[in-house]
Write a structure and sequence with these properties.
Layout (H helix, E strand, L loop, with lengths): L2 H11 L6 H29 L5 H12 L3 H12 L3 H18 L3 H25 L20 H18 L5 H24 L5 H29 L1 H14 L1
Helix pairs in contact: 2-9, 4-8, 5-6, 5-7, 6-7, 6-9, 7-8, 7-9
Length: 246
């Protein structure tokens, strides 16, 4: 069978309209993972060699120049939405929702894995790089080592996973778009708050986002693959295609 006949066969067997969108998402996820990995490795190498980042000082100097009481109070609140206690509480609520409302066992399993794994990554990476903070502020969880930012990584995984859960729903499009936009803005705001409060360098935030995105994509991709594996109809369909070709 030549190439054209092979292409015609697969075109008849597979509904391309149902494949192109997931395919694009997979490619986008792979591209994001590669980009995040390169970014983290570049930042990690410079931090390990104790080099200074020009953009760190530029951004921090600018934020310091616009510092005022109102902005400080706002960022004090926002930074708490990336704290350990908040992420723990929000994670427990999300697990209860997935279990009691959706009966989503895989969702509970991989959400818990994402949050717990993120905590382990932060502990290990902070201990490994041991970068000092720009300033210590225990009242803002600004103690211990700085690189990468735990608030940035934790908020990216938590709110990123919730964004995924909302995005995969099929109803209330306008409400979902609004909520997703709000959560995306919150992720950025948490990182910005850490820099504004002088407890992290911008490079710490970028590293936290990078590691968070890598781990989040791995967990979501693994969960989706597990769903395909557990779906008997999809497995039977793929098996029929393979055996028919034989």
């Amino acid at each position: 069978m030549n190439l054209k006949e092979e292409a015609r066969y697969w075109k008849k067997q597979i509904d391309i309209s149902k494949i192109w969108a997931p395919g694009l998402l997979i490619l986008a996820g792979i591209g994001l993972m590669i980009t995040a990995t390169v970014l983290f490795l570049e930042l990690a190498e410079d931090v390990w060699e104790q080099e200074k980042f020009t953009f760190d000082s530029v951004i921090m100097d600018y934020l310091q120049s616009i510092e005022n009481g109102t902005l400080t109070n706002v960022f004090k609140i926002i930074t708490e939405t990336g704290s350990v206690w908040w992420i723990t509480a929000a994670s427990c609520f999300t697990v209860l929702f997935l279990w009691l409302k959706k009966w989503d066992v895989l969702g509970v399993l991989f959400f818990t894995l994402a949050i717990a794994g993120g905590g382990i990554f932060i502990f290990v990476l902070k201990y490994f790089f041991q970068r000092e903070r720009p300033s210590l502020a225990p009242e803002y969880d600004g103690s211990g080592y700085s690189f990468p930012s735990g608030h940035a990584l934790g908020s990216f995984i938590l709110y990123g996973f919730i964004i995924y859960l909302i995005a995969r729903e099929k109803r209330f499009l306008k409400w979902r778009l609004f909520t997703v936009s709000l959560l995306a803005l919150l992720i950025i705001s948490v990182g910005l708050s850490r820099v504004y409060l002088q407890v992290h360098f911008p490079s710490d935030i970028l590293a936290g986002y990078a590691v968070g995105s890598i781990w989040l994509i791995c967990c979501i991709f693994s969960m989706e693959m597990m769903k395909v594996y557990r779906d008997k109809d999809k497995r039977a369909y793929l098996s029929d295609l393979i055996h028919h070709r034989k």
